Amino acid sequence: MHIKYHTEGKIAFITLNREEALNAIDQSMLEELSRALLSFKQDNNLVVGIITGAGKAFSVGADIGALLPQMQNEIGLQHSGPPTIMRGLSVWKPLIAAINGAALGGGLELALACDIRIASENAIFAFPEVTLGLIPGWGGTQRIARAVPLAIASELLLLGRPINASRAMQTGLVNKVVPAAGLMDAAVSYARNICNNAPLAVNTAKQCLLRGLGMPLENGLELEKSCNDYLVSTQDFTEGTRAHLEKRKPAFRAV
Asked: 224 catalytic, yes or no?
């Protein structure tokens, strides 16, 4: 198995599991990742997902030797490969990347497709594709400029050189940097804090945020208003406001 998938309470854990290859992504891993993400998306008892890598690396990116012939065969195809959060699959539940080492190429693209990124102190980040005659092809050229200032995005894309966790934190690429031994504890802490909130509201907030990025402000405000109007009509809103007034913990429903 190239992907390990398990759940604990309301949290799903998705682990890239080609430790011997530093979690390089091949076709089998892509297919298993797609299935794991679909399982997470469709399970109404789950609220947050955490993606990490086994061993010393998050992922060093696409397994070029294994995927290159397939990439050449798929030239011109509108849709290729199994759907993942990098391309083809929308998951409105929050996803946290726990980056335990190198996140290179497709590994960085996977982390960028998550909502929150927590890095260990030994993590490094790079888009080395230009050194291979390629560009990031799983959303990297589009998501990096939405995550960091344009000059930093240009540096990563054009130079192909890595940056360390400290610089990633300074540029806003990651939310937090922690010692390696505390990485999963930090990720789970974030996940549990999210789980305390109304799942429907959390998912809707993510959807408004990401869909609104591609809209003029006026349209984004209309989207926000319609989503908020819907939430006000839900049982979670009634429960949340009632619990606040009664000074107790709300009992939200998973979605």
From this structure: no
